[in-house]
Amino acid sequence: MTNYHEILRLYAQGISQRSITLSCECSRNTVSKVIAGAKEHNVQWPLGSNVSDLDLEEKLFPQKSSVNPSRKHPDYEYIDKEMMRSGVTLKLLWNEYCESCRQSKELPLMYSQFCFYYQKTREKKRATMHIPRKPGEQIEVDWAGKTAFVIDQDTGEMMPAYIFVSVLNYSLYAYVEAFYTMDMESWITAHVHMYHFFGGVTRMLIPDNLKTGVDHCDWFTPKINRTYHEMAEHYDTAVIPARIKKPKDKPSVEGTVGNISTWITAALRNQKFFSLEELNHEIQDKLDAFNQRPFQKKEGSRYSVFNSDEKAFLMPLPTAPFELAQWKEATVQFNYHISVDKMLYSIPYEYIKQKVDVRVTRNIVEVFYHNTRICSHKDFMDTLVNTAH
After folding, report:
1. Rounded Cα–Cα distance for residues 99 and 328 (Å)
2. Would you say the CATH fold of 326-377 matches that of 138-313?
3. DSSP-derived 3-state class of residue 140
4. Which helix (H) or strand (E) holds 159?
5. Letter string b/e over residues 253-272, b meaning 16 or more CB atoms within 10 A of that residue's CB
6. How far apart are CA 389 and CA 387, in angstroms?
7. How many CB atoms are located within 10 Å of the residue 109 CB?
8. In which band, very low, low, confident or very high, does the pLDDT at 219 lie, cut at 50, 70 and 90?
9. Which of 10, 45, 39 shows the shortest CA–CA distance to 24?
10. Kindly report the CA angle at 251 between 248 and 254, in degrees rounded to 5?
11. Which region among 171-175, 228-232, 382-386 has the lowest average model confidence (pLDDT)?
């Protein structure tokens, strides 16, 4: 805003308009208009201590301030809700707002004013949200650094249990589960349970560059594990790994891991568990309390924000949960069979000496050549007598 006080003060001291322009960093036209307006409306220096630049603007340019009230302001609450939708921009909403003003024969705000007033409204509502996020857009996942422990009932040995943590980065609603290992089966199972817990799927899934999710860690183009990619296709989401040594790529889960370590893992340090089921049952109780805990610097809790603002934006779950599959590579031998986990499976003879990809689940073994399925066997325990389809 123009510094009217300074312009009038310098002019009262006999400073030239050119020098005032340089001192106040404004145009000579602005300085001349302010001085002319002061003479016309008998505004003289010194001014009262309680007179602001906004008050001066109304006195010096009454015709300018009288125009603004006639301009129609949009419903900023509606604008804020629409901005949560994927693909919606302020420019699009401004065009729609202008069209509604034309139909009602009212003057709309300019785009810059539209953005200014919207940001002011948004700052009051979300004063603590530094990074704008859209609801239902991203889930961040990782293994927590600290482990819990389960006591072996036979040997008394303390077995470590690794904590899987996932966070919706808009509401910060979290899911936590413990596993004995951090292998692919645990990793995929954790995701299946996570999506069931949230009751929907986000458009993006952001894991760390851990080996269970990413085969090859590259700064720009990490290679996603094939099983993990298959799971992402099943849930119609995109896996976007965080960059190496870039914790700000997944700030929600990084911050929540620390809170989980305090409010769940550390809170269970004096309790003894003799099975993974007991541990996970207690973790769920602690997790419910954690998600219901009120925010310190804004209204509501993780659960209330999720339930009111984010849940409706999640994509629906598929009709059936993802079934874990292992991918292996094999070479078709001269007896037109392949060996997988010491079991033999027949393959069409024309693929002898060719390398094939094998997808193994609990119920079926499928063989692919150049991403085309060439045969399958219903039972993983079938032996040489199985015939190709």
Report:
1. 58
2. no
3. strand
4. strand 158-168
5. bbebbeebbebbbebbeeee
6. 7
7. 20
8. very low
9. 10
10. 115
11. 382-386
Q: Which of 96, 45, 65 is nearest to 1 (CA)?
A: 65
For the segment 294-346, what is each residue's pLDDT rounded down to a tens digit? 987 778 899 999 999 899 999 999 998 888 877 888 999 998 899 888 888 99
| Interval 133-137 mean pLDDT | 83
Distance (Å, whole) CA 283 – CA 174:
12
pLDDT of residue 129: 45
Alpha helices in the chain (DSSP H): 4-12, 17-24, 28-40, 53-60, 62-65, 76-82, 90-103, 111-125, 184-198, 226-234, 251-260, 276-292, 302-305
Domain extent listing, the chain: 4-66, 74-125, 138-313, 326-377
Q: 71-72 and 326-331: which strand pairing?
A: unpaired
Structure tokens at 255: 């911050």
CB 346 within 8 A of CB 337: yes
Q: What's phi and psi for 308, nearest 5 deg?
A: -90, -35
242 token code pair = 């965080």
CATH code of domain 138-313: 3.30.420.10
Q: Which two tokens stand for residue 225?
A: 């594990």
Tokens of residue 256, six digits? 């929540």
121 pLDDT exceeds 90?
no
Residue owning tokens 């006639």: 70
Distance from C-alpha of 364 to C-alpha of 380, rounded to nearest angstrom:
6
Pairing mode, strands 138-143 and 204-207: parallel
CATH architecture of 326-377: Beta Barrel (2.40)
